[in-house]
Design a protein that fits this description.
Elements: E1 7-12, H1 13-23, H2 36-52, E2 56-61, H3 69-72, H4 85-88, H5 91-100, E3 104-107, H6 113-126, E4 130-135, E5 148-153, E6 160-163, H7 165-172, H8 176-186, H9 201-211, H10 214-219, H11 227-235, H12 237-247, H13 269-279, H14 282-292, E7 303-304, E8 316-323, E9 333-340, E10 343-347, H15 349-354, H16 356-363, E11 368-371, H17 374-383, E12 391-394, H18 395-402, H19 411-417, H20 426-430, H21 441-468, H22 472-492, E13 494-496, H23 498-523, H24 532-542, H25 559-565, H26 571-595, E14 596-597, E15 602-603, E16 606-608, E17 618-620, H27 632-635, E18 641-642, E19 648-655, H28 658-667, H29 670-677, H30 682-691, H31 700-715, H32 719-726, H33 730-743, H34 745-761, E20 763-765, E21 771-773, H35 782-818, E22 824-828, E23 832-838, H36 842-854, E24 865-870
Parallel strand pairs: 1-2, 1-4, 2-3, 4-5, 7-10, 8-11, 11-12
Antiparallel strand pairs: 5-6, 8-9, 9-10, 13-15, 13-18, 14-15, 16-17, 19-23, 19-24, 20-21, 22-23
Helix pairs in contact: 1-2, 2-5, 5-13, 8-9, 8-12, 13-14, 17-22, 18-21, 22-35, 23-26, 28-29, 28-34, 28-35, 29-30, 30-31, 30-33, 31-32, 32-33, 34-35, 35-36
This protein binds a DNA duplex through α24, α26, β17, α31 and α32.
Subunit structure: Single-chain monomer with multiple functions.
Catalytic activity: DNA(n) + a 2'-deoxyribonucleoside 5'-triphosphate = DNA(n+1) + diphosphate
Pfam families: 5_3_exonuc, 5_3_exonuc_N, DNA_pol_A, DNA_polI_exo1
DNA sequence: TAGGGCACGC
DNA sequence: GACGTACGTGCCCTAG
């Protein structure tokens, strides 16, 4: 191995983690894990890799509590503060971080990280390596040599002092070996190494300059100047010798790792991305994206066509539509690619729209097409005047069904996940933010063509994964057909009464101005009420209201806190009202007006079918799943949602307590099932069972509590969450939950079983085999595990409910068609479907909507659907 | 431009 | 014993 220079970096893991922990404020992520040491460790690692560019590296950790040094001196490292739990919980993540970087780490029973480093650096020196040691512990400087540099953290974590023999000479006038002698004489308080009492750094250095080694000093005490010093040395000979021994880093520890095993590996970007996301390291995520672009791209072959001839297009192909924006209802369509047999075509949207052959092919149900994002594709082709039919595969949905936890950011990440050749990210092709632009035509065609070819390349892998997980039916019979149903709902859109919305806006504006001036008058000054920071100053500093809760950045001014402060000051209720009406104005009046298509006065939301971990849909631009209903003022917003045809009505149908019915079914609990078999009010029934009273003795308070517990069960909240929603103590909340589970023993059994199952299998499943992986269920971290357990209990309930309504939607769409009805399905709000229909179809809907929805699946308890209709969404209540 | 705080729905 | 605790979307504010 001559010629190539090999550079080894050895990092003292514990020491650097400690440094990072104490150098940075106690950051935590959204899951309540502290991350400062992990973050500091990460940034330091990045910097070191960048600056030093080691060819080999390893991180050494201390093993356990006792080391061989304790045999020499029982009290070694005695009196040292215990590792704070906030730090120790971070160590597993540091190991994950190293795993993601494919960096080896090592620990050795009975030895400290120092000894591992000492042993390996000595070996490395013999093998011709240049070595850099990174630590926060100056002891390590004894290892310095011509080939070994020891970098010790100075201030913070990234400022390093580089110890070479000449630097040590300059600083102390000693050789690296003499550092050990120095420690023997002066001791080290942090490791509880005693040394010679009364001898500090200055004296130690003086003695060593005169005599060379500790042994020489002790053998020549007569020659030492100073009577006191002589006495001290004489009395503490043994102590000094022992101290030197303790301070000596061993170079011969039984390290089993070989140097060639430490060669630097490629970073596992997938793992690293996942970890950074989990930890909330967003700034580092951005950097990663930049690095990943360096992957090598193989150009693919494609042919641009202006039209197709009969016979060009086979009975199966991969198809991709490239758009300029995420909103496919409005985005520019940039191009279409078709991967047919061994050829990949590109056609511009203008030419595609003109081609009769292409249109016929797109609309042919017997021609199967594999796509990425069926819903987007259907809508895009719709806009080109073609009805895309015959979709047999969707890479995006398949990927979601296989594992929803892998975020579906863009095509590139999904392709990579399934082992395809690299696809550039859309961001790298188009740029982002203000710099975003369409690339030159060849690059656009290449990019678009590549996607169609990629779908072809990995389709079978995905199908196999689905088959293996028994999810092919969920994919083919539920999610794929649902995409078409959703596409149609989105395309149909919902009509908005703009004038009504604007009128409400004018009225709100007037009210808001009144409230605002009231608040300014009471406060005695003007300020921005929407700024929690400024509001906090007014409430808690000027008005001196009690501070009940603080946030990361200041005083909490959230509604639940303000609610408690209501009796303290008249300003509070005005602020609450200002917030409530302000929300209506900005999000619902102004927000909705912004997204109305002005040619039709309709709103076209987008349902995200591949986002939630439970299988629910989400809705954006606008979000039509959070239109107000609870408070009357907000509920009036729904008056602006109207039928798109004269003399039609809005028809709304919702499942009654679908999640609790699912729970009754899954758990098979008699008590719970009874409520549904007898058609009782489930919250009243729960109150009866939990409080052990007869129906007529259930008070409204009892029912409220029971309802909150049921809510908690459905959403998987903790005792803490329950205590917050009922404003009771955590203990009381925990008692309620216990009583609930005592009342419904088979629910308890289900909860225990599902947690056990999740631990065994690593995932939980819904009725229709939707999976959610829950790796945190085995976490040592109390927090993460608690989360995971509630997720395990809740996902089969909420996910099954999501499965059921999705199935109902598909069947509803089929039924409307089969019955030749004009009725249109418009919206889905988790357990509710909203239609618009001609008045003469109301009667028919009253029959078929509940029928279809209630029979979507058969459970051991009946499903129940309530419905109503009216001239606006508001009136369909 | 990103993140925090807040509020809406289920 | 820890230490924070359904999810998702979108608004406004603030700090960089």
């Amino acid at each position: 191995m001559i010629g190539l220079s090999k550079k080894l970096m050895l990092i003292d893991g514990n020491s650097i983690a400690y440094r990072a922990f104490f150098a940075l404020p106690l950051l935590n992520n959204d899951k309540g894990i502290h991350t400062n040491a992990i973050y500091g460790f990460t940034t330091m690692l990045m910097k070191l890799l960048d600056e030093e560019k080691p060819t080999h590296l390893m991180v050494a950790f201390d093993a356990g509590k006792t080391t061989f040094r304790h045999k020499t001196f029982e009290d070694y490292k005695g009196g040292r503060q215990k590792t704070p739990p906030e730090l120790s919980e971070q160590f597993p993540f540091i190991r994950d971080l190293l795993d993601a970087h494919n960096i080896k780490y090592y620990e050795l029973d009975q030895y400290e990280a120092d000894d591992i480093i000492g042993t390996l650096s000595t070996q490395a020196e013999k093998d011709g390596f240049e070595t850099v040691v990174i630590s926060g512990d100056k002891d390590l400087t004894q290892l310095a040599s011509e080939k070994i540099r020891v970098d010790i953290t100075k201030k913070g974590i990234t400022d390093l002092e580089k110890y070479t023999p000449s630097h040590i000479e300059e600083k102390y006038g000693l050789t690296p070996d003499q550092i050990i002698d120095m420690k023997g004489l002066m001791g080290d308080s942090s490791d509880n190494i005693p040394g010679v009492p009364g001898v500090g750094e200055k004296t130690a250095i003086k003695l060593l300059k005169q005599f060379g080694t500790l042994e020489n000093v002790l053998n020549s005490i007569d020659e030492v100047s100073g009577k006191k010093l002589k006495e001290k040395l004489e009395e503490n000979k043994q102590l000094a010798e022992m101290s030197k021994k303790l301070a000596t880093i061993t170079r011969t520890a039984p390290v089993t790792v070989k140097l060639d095993e430490l060669e630097k590996q490629e970073v596992n970007y997938d793992k690293l991305t996942k970890l950074y996301k989990e930890l909330g390291f967003n700034s580092l995520l951005d950097k990663l994206d930049g690095e990943e672009e360096e992957i090598e791209l193989k150009d693919i072959e494609w042919e641009e066509v202006t039209d197709f001839k009969d016979g060009d297009l086979p009975s199966h192909a991969e198809l991709y539509v490239e758009l300029y924006d995420v909103n496919y209802h409005t985005a520019d369509i940039l191009g279409i690619s078709v991967h047919a047999d061994k050829k990949t075509y590109f056609i511009s949207p203008e030419n595609a729209a003109k081609s009769e052959v292409f249109k016929k092919w797109i609309e042919d149900e017997n021609v199967t097409k594999s796509v990425y994002d069926a819903k987007e594709s259907i809508v895009a082709f719709d806009r080109l005047g073609m009805h895309l039919k015959g979709i047999d595969f969707d890479l995006l949905i398949a990927s979601y069904v296989i594992d929803a936890s892998e975020a579906a950011d863009d095509f590139a990440s999904i392709a990579k996940r399934h082992g395809a050749d690299a696809v550039p990210t859309d961001e790298s092709v188009y740029g982002k933010g203000a710099k975003k632009k369409v690339p030159e035509k060849n690059e656009l065609m290449q990019h678009t063509a590549r996607k169609a070819a990629t779908i072809h390349a990995i389709k079978e892998t995905c199908i196999s994964a689905l088959e293996k997980n028994e999810q092919l039916e969920l994919f083919e019979k539920l999610e794929l057909p649902l995409a078409a149903v959703l596409a149609e709902m989105e395309r149909t859109g919902v009509q908005v009464d703009i004038d009504r919305l604007k009128d409400m806006g004018v009225e709100l504006k007037k009210k808001l101005e009144e409230i605002q001036s009231d608040i300014y008058r009471i406060a005695g000054e003007e300020f921005n009420i929407n700024s929690p920071k400024q509001l906090g100053v007014i409430l808690f500093e000027n008005l001196k209201l009690p501070v009940l809760k603080k946030t990361k950045t200041g005083y909490s001014t959230s509604a639940d806190i303000l609610e408690k402060l209501k009796p303290e000051h008249e300003i509070i209720e005005h602020i609450l009202l200002f917030r409530q009406l302000g929300k209506l104005q900005s999000t619902y009046i102004e927000g909705l007006l912004k997204v109305i298509h002005d040619d039709s006065n309709k709103i076209h939301t987008r349902y995200n079918q591949v986002l939630t971990q439970t299988g629910r849909l989400s809705s954006t631009d606008p979000n039509l799943q959070n239109i107000p209903i609870r408070l009357e003022e907000g509920r009036k917003i729904r008056q602006a949602f109207v039928p798109s045809e004269k003399e039609w009505v809005m028809f709304a149908a919702d499942y009654s307590q679908i999640e609790l019915r699912v729970l009754a079914h899954i758990s098979d609990d008699e008590g719970l099932k009874e409520a549904f078999h007898k058609g009782m009010d489930v919250h009243t029934k729960t109150a009866m069972d939990v409080f052990g009273v007869a129906k007529e003795n259930v008070t409204s308070g009892m029912r409220r509590h029971a309802k909150a517990v049921n809510f908690g069960i459905v959403y998987g909240i903790s005792d803490y969450g329950l205590s917050q929603s009922l404003d009771i103590t955590r203990k009381e909340a925990a008692d309620f939950i216990k009583k609930y589970l005592d009342s419904y023993p088979k629910v308890k059994e289900y909860m225990d079983d599902i947690i056990h199952e999740a631990k065994q299998k690593g995932y939980v499943e819904t009725l229709l085999h939707r999976r959610r992986y829950i790796p945190e269920i085995t976490s040592r971290n109390f927090n993460l595990r608690g989360f995971a357990e509630r997720t395990a209990m809740n996902t089969p309930i909420q996910g099954t409910a999501a499965d059921i309504i999705k199935k109902a939607m598909i069947e509803m769409a089929e039924r409307l068609k089969a019955e030749n009805l004009q009725t249109r399905m418009l919206l889905q709000v988790h357990d509710e479907l909203i239609f618009e229909c001609p008045k003469d179809e109301i009667e028919k809907l009253e029959q078929i909507v509940p029928e279809v929805m209630e029979s979507a699946v058969e459970l051991s308890v009946p499903l129940k659907v309530d419905y109503s209709y009216g001239s606006t969404w508001y009136d369909a209540k």
